[in-house]
Amino acid sequence: MDNLTPKEIADEEMINQAFHELLNDYLATKHRKRVEIITKAFNFANQAHKGIKRRSGEPYIMHPIAVASIVCNEIGLGSTSICAALLHDVVEDTDYTVEDIENIFGPKIAQIVDGLTKISGGIFGDRASAQAENFKKLLLTMSNDIRVILIKIADRLHNMRTLGSMLPNKQYKIAGETLYIYAPLANRLGLYKIKTELENLSFKYEHPEEYEVIDKKIEAYEKQFSALFEEFIKPIRKSLSENHYEYTITARTKSVYSVWLKMQRRNISFDEIYDLLAVRIVFKPKADQPEKWQCWNIYSLITDIYSPKPERIRDWVSVPKANGYEALHLTVMGPEGQWFEVQIRSERMDEIAEKGLAAHWKYKEGDNSTVSKEKDFDKKLVWLRDMLEWQKDTSDAHEFIEDFKIDLFSDEVFVFTPKGVVINLASGSTPIDFAYRIHTDVGNKCVMAKVNGKVVPLDYKLKTGEIVEIITSNSSKGPSMNWLNYAKSNQARSKIRAWFKKANREENINKGKEILEKELKKYSVSFNEIAKGEAYERLQKKYNFHNLDELYAGLGSGIIPILTFMSKLREGNLHEKPTDEEITKEIEEKNEKHTKEKEVVKTKSGIIIKGENNLLYRLARCCTPVPGDDVLGYITKGRGVSIHRKDCINLISLIKHDPEKVVEVSWGEKEAKSSYIAEIKIKTDDSVGLISDVSKTISDCGLNIVALNANSQSANKAIMTVKVEIKAIDQLKELMKKIRKIKGVTEVFRMNN
Of 89, 498, 527, 564, which alpha carbon lies 20 to 30 A from 365's? Predict the structure, then answer.
């Protein structure tokens, strides 16, 4: 310590304090007290990261300590996971190997660290393909040790909490990735609190202005209804106490992101959301009564006081969600005509709701008393194993992640077989999904479906509580291609694709052979020459083909994209490598069917694309970006670079499918001399004189109206869409500010898709 600078001494004290706080938190848990190995892991990681700083300026070891703290306190894992969290960046960032970790800490910790190392980085960006492949491998193996992904989520949570120190482009990328995959994954694992925080933080960095507006409105709402909440729970407290329940009652307000999402999906304003506030009752179960019965008893006590809304009952006590969530939700009318959602949980249910599957995991590191507990935990992971099993044959990593994400995002409906067996499906599922959930043959031979005894079309959206019957026929010719449009679940979609893959195998083999031979002619090489290189071996593993017929079938069906295949082979196996210009020309030839857009122009300082001039670009019509907007470019096929606002829904979707085509762009010097079209929507409670008032306001701002359209929704409500010609975003903001002041105008917002 004598040779250290004051700053180094202060850092050492901060590190030691953070670690001791972690140890104290761990000692307060019910896990076995393995302080020695945790201390050993800390000392090892501290030494390995010595002298390394985070972008924030703090010692790097503070990050692993913070992740370990989240793992311990917010997820509830034990010593093995805490050690792995402390060590999770050692292999990635230092000279130590997984073998070193295994020799010092044993195979289990090393296995987890190895899994975490494989998904360092992100699934978007320069290494998107490689990271997507790594993420796919992780997902396929994580059901064997769920702790890998739980620690990764903790790692991502701390990164999001400290995202402010990163560069803006990094913030946007990491936030998008978090909202795309990590938040829904946390939700599916039952980590509701963490899921909500990940969503809010991502939204804060992606849409800072909208976040601030909604956050302030929620804060004002909470202050306004605090007294109403106390009045609402007073008779409930009295009734619960009289019935000898030990309980806690808390208020919960919807998160900023969930409010925004609801506003977007339903196209409503903040004031039109009526379920902002929820009341949560957590009770200690009485020993002589079943938990489920006590939940319904509390429900009865509440509905004796307040009138319920029958269609809003959510019974996840009788049929828990796939991620283990159990609770009884009801909506009742409060004393002043205000709707309140009430959530009823036991202490056990609440722990699972807060810590998800990790609440079931802790017995593995603590209580080893019964084998039945292990079997119970395994049941909790059935959904995960099934989901991964259905998708493991998907060859493209990005497609795999996209499919997996769809399942993660899906809410659930519960339907019954004619024999009364409960089947849980994703919200929006059809009889096709139900049929394939029962059995592959049932799906392939399906000819008709009945719901509650009545014949329904195969694209019918199933609802909770319905009885579903599938009529099959041995003479059925198999599924229709249209079924891919009907199926919601990736289980059904993968089974349908597998059927067609098998049925069309011969046709695809012949087609694929022709495609490959045509491509090889361009390079004047034979197949035998290219089938010996390392690039070809990598492609074999990537697309999972073991012989020539499988390769031909993959090429013919499109499962293996020919351009991607040949591009990878170019890395070292072909004699003649085409230039970038040749590849661009080839892509353009394949996309001649696309209509050329008039907006394509050459940059002359209007838009700067990666610091280059004289490139083709166009301003996207879907979001109409103007100077001052935060923008990104997306390389289109044969039409130059499409310029989108960063919050454009279409751009977000494009990024998910092909993130490698995103380029950084900025506004250049030409922006002030050019005019741009911006589109706004105006909602009003009084349509009389609206067009005149809006037109005058636009004219007073010195702007030209390009187009104007007004539609009446009712006798006194109207929506107006206006396109104006502007030179910069400031002009648009000023115009919208003035329009909001027009009498009768209720809402003004920028159009985005």
Answer: 89
Pairwise CA distance, residues 429 & 288, whole Å: 40
Q: Is residue 251 part of a domain?
A: yes
In this structure, the answer to whether residues 550 and 629 fall within a common structural domain is: no
Residues 332 and 222 in one domain: yes
Sign of the torsion formed by the C-alpha atoms of 172, 732, 669 and 616: positive
428: alpha, beta or left? (left if phi > 0; alpha if psi -120 to 50): left
Same domain, 262 and 154: no
DSSP 3-state of 644: strand
Q: Is 74 in the same domain as 175?
A: yes
Residue 747: partners with Cβ closer than 8 Å, 6 or more residues away: 269, 681, 682, 683
**Number of domains composing the chain:** 6
Residues 6 or more apart from 535 whose CB is under 8 A from it?
Answer: 568, 569, 570, 571, 572, 573
- Cα gap 32→34, rounded to integer Å: 6
Could you tell me the residue range of the domain that residue 611 belongs to? 601-672
Whether residues 10 and 93 fall in one domain = yes
Tell me, yes or no, whether 679 and 554 share the same domain. no
Residue with token string 């399906």? 446
In terms of average pLDDT, the best of 11-20, 319-328, 627-636 is: 11-20
Question: Rounded CA gap, 175 and 179, in Å?
Answer: 6
CA distance 706 to 725: 7
Domain shared by 136 and 247, yes or no: no
Residue 277 and residue 280: Cα distance in Å, rounded? 10
Question: Annotated catalytic sites, by residue?
Answer: 92-93
CB atoms within 10 A of CB 710: 15
List pLDDT tens digits, range 417-434: 888 777 878 778 899 999
Query: In this structure, what are the phi and psi dihedrals at residue 672, rounded to the nearest 5 degrees?
Result: -70, -20
Last residue of a domain, one of 637, 672, 707: 672
Answer for the pair 405, 184: CB distance below 8 angstroms, yes or no: yes
**DSSP letter assigned to residue 332:** E
For the domain that residue 102 is a member of, what is the CATH number? 1.10.3210.10
148 plus 19 within the same structural domain: yes
Displacement of CA 566 from its chain's centroid (Å): 32
What pLDDT, in 10s, does the model give residues 332-379?
Answer: 988 888 888 899 999 988 888 877 665 554 434 444 443 444 444 445
Enumerate the H helices of 381-430 as residue ranges: 382-391, 397-409
